[in-house]
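seq as requested:
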Amino acid sequence: MTRTDQREIRLGLPSKGRLEGETLAFLDGCGLRVDRTNPRQYVARIPALPQVTVWFQRASVIPFQVRDGDIDLAITGYDRVAEAGVDGDVIVLYDRLGYGNCELVLAVPEAWQAVETVEDLAAEARRRAQEGRPLRVATKYTRLVGEFLEAHQVMPYRLIAVEGALEAAPGMGYADIIADLTATGTTLRDNHLKRLEGGAILYSEACLIGNRQALSQRPEVLGVARQLLEYIEAHLRARSYHAIIANIRGESPEAVAARVFSQPDLGGLQGPTISRVYVRDGSPGWYAISIVVRKDRLHAAVEQLRAIGGSGVVVTPATYIFEEEPAAYRRLLEQLKGLPTTDQGRYREVRH
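struct tokens:
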């Protein structure tokens, strides 16, 4: 892909597999629906971001395209970013989008009863070395796996780069063990392989990345990054909450607020919104309260509302919860200025 129009803002998305479908569903949930008239097309639009062109690309090449500036921003698996080794040129704006969860792990044949840990594997590698047989490891992640094996003294080894299904490699005889992604471990067990204790190389989720130079030098790219982070953070935050509206009698808004604050789960994000209710018969003293509660405390919150006289309780899922400014955007600005970030939990340069 050759970049010819620096005014166009390009967003790269995975073009195949489960990650493609989950990414489209995630963006739709964020209010950023991707319009693609033909599923075979590799270019699409986001109506909410008319200045952005979506390019569907293979997840494995997206980090390199962002590094080279062919794509300004992108979503792909963090495993792909870490394996690409594009430190410095690529920034991870949000490293856990909440889907595509998996681990890159070492797995050995179940028949290897004496090998249960990485330390056992190191001993097995040394034993094989005495016989002139380096440990053969089939993987798609040669960089990450090689660094892990050396750090844990699993040597000597020979990496076998494989693009297809890895689980068959030990059974077919062209590798001794594998290092592959797994979410549940079912596929490994179905193929008579087992994970090693201490053999988790990398945890990965879908992540949002960007080209450092584009973010630093093109205000329009930085502006789109802020919009993406705004919607992403608001959507992910809202997943944990429900909005509740209820009617309650009281002498005044202050008296109602005091009763609400007497309950442990009714404080809301900052506090309840309380407004007067105008009833048909004109009777005074009715108020509506609106609060946001955590999903896991919903039942308790409803019971607490009833306990203080609440009725007509209406519960709706929260779609977005916006803060004054996205925390991830503040961290991005700090990083672009060369300042140390205060919270690395959701933002980092590429590392593993």
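Residues 241-317 form a domain with the Alpha-Beta Plaits fold (CATH 3.30.70.120).
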